[in-house]
Design goal:
405 residues; alpha+beta; six-stranded mixed beta barrel; 10 strands
């Protein structure tokens, strides 16, 4: 019996019990759809996390004050005032492989425009900060190095601050008040959303660090220093040199802990990627259980079919059908059920992923690999769980089969 005839006979046999065949395929449909959906959700989450981490800057390091202090007491970012502007200049001059550096002096301020006011975070930086963080302007432009040198009263607004104070009004050139001082708005950053660390990157403002230190925050130290390496490969070398340089400048003894910390964004991205891969694998593993249940359903129905068609099998063998023909017949029926279920499962998975993305605003990335693996796995289920019923049918004694009622 050739393949085409075997397939036609299999379709005819399955069509006799349409509802039973549909319910049998349902397990495979749900299994394949679940795998595609869960893998899509996991990969979407990974892409979103990587995009947010990318906003920290590529090839970037953040040097922060506060990892340790006297008496081995540890604190958070900015809790220990050990970073100064001269540290930034020293890194720029003495560390090889550095492309750009930028200081950061931070605090909380109230910004006022007309009868509107908003409490937000202020970052005193240099123009290099926006290069390192890869943050473009939606409106206007960045302040200049001259503004930094002169300590001019200029400010760049985050997207959320612009929305709260100005709504749809163009803020460029307008004057806002901070600490009862007038500041001219020169730019608005593009909306960036939540960062990889969980804070709103749009709810902050930027000004020259000299202005922030002297006129707004009243401090002489820095909360952090942003460092950009010339390449991804050079970042570990730069990190080691920065750590050694700062320990020397801060006169830290070999046995004492650092009074600063250096965060490597490459390591953060790799850790997040590994975590997302584990989550995706776990989601796919859970969803695969339904595929296994669907395969067991196929075996169950095929065993029932063998019992119901025992006399038919006996007739076929009596007129010349071989054991291989009978086995191929039932194995084909099992594979048809699993493959049709797999194809319908793809449609279900794509639809479910789209619904999740739209309704829950959860990112989803459909992988062609996950689709191919799901279909191949469902086909393998058809072969694996259909083989025993097919072998059982092929080994029936023709005489006993003809006598079966």
């Amino acid at each position: 019996m050739n393949l085409l005839v075997t397939l036609r006979v299999a379709l005819r046999a399955l069509s006799r019990h349409k509802m039973r065949s549909a319910l049998t395929m349902l397990g495979i449909i749900i299994g394949v759809g679940s795998v595609i959906t869960m893998v899509g959700v996991g990969q979407g989450a990974n892409v979103q996390v990587q995009e947010r981490i990318a906003t920290l800057g590529s090839n970037a390091l953040m040097v922060g004050a506060g990892s340790g202090g006297g008496g081995h007491v540890h604190g958070g970012l900015g809790s220990i005032r050990t970073l100064v502007v001269d540290d930034m200049f020293a890194i720029q001059r003495q560390v090889s492989g550095v492309k750009a550096v930028a200081p950061g002096a931070t605090g909380s301020v109230q910004i006022i425009y007309g009868n509107q006011n908003w409490q937000t975070g202020v970052h005193g930086v240099t123009p290099s900060y926006f290069q390192i963080k890869e943050t473009p302007m939606e409106l206007g432009s960045c302040f200049t190095d001259e503004d930094v040198q002169l300590g001019n009263n200029v400010v760049i607004l985050g997207a959320e601050v612009r929305k709260q104070l100005f709504g749809d009004e163009n803020p460029i050139g307008k004057t806002v008040r901070i600490k009862n001082l007038p500041f001219r708005v020169v730019g608005v950053t593009v909306a960036q959303g939540q960062s990889g660390m969980g804070f709103n990157q749009d709810d902050r403002i930027f000004m020259p660090y000299t202005t922030a230190q002297k006129k707004v925050l009243g401090i002489t130290w820095l909360n952090y220093i942003q460092v950009q390496a010339v390449s991804r490969e050079a970042i570990y070398m730069v990190q080691k040199q920065v750590e050694d340089l700062l320990r020397e400048r801060h006169r830290i003894k070999p046995t004492d802990p650092d009074d600063f910390f250096v965060r490597n964004n490459v390591d953060v991205a790799q850790l997040a990627d590994e975590s997302s891969q584990v989550m995706t694998l776990m989601l796919a593993s859970v969803a695969s259980v339904s595929l296994l249940v669907g395969g067991i359903g196929i075996m169950n129905i095929m065993l029932v079919s063998v019992t119901e068609r025992t006399r038919e099998i006996g007739v076929r063998m009596a007129i010349g059908a071989t054991e291989q023909d009978v086995q191929a017949q039932f194995l084909t029926e099992a594979m048809v059920l699993s493959l049709f279920g797999g194809l319908l499962g793809i449609i279900f998975g794509l639809t479910a992923s789209k619904v999740l993305s739209t309704v829950l605003e959860w990112p989803s990335r459909i992988s062609l690999v996950s689709i191919a693996v799901s279909v191949l796995f469902s086909a393998a289920m058809g072969v694996f769980f259909g083989l025993y019923p097919a072998r059982k049918a092929a080994r029936l004694d023709p005489i006993e089969a003809l006598r079966y009622e």
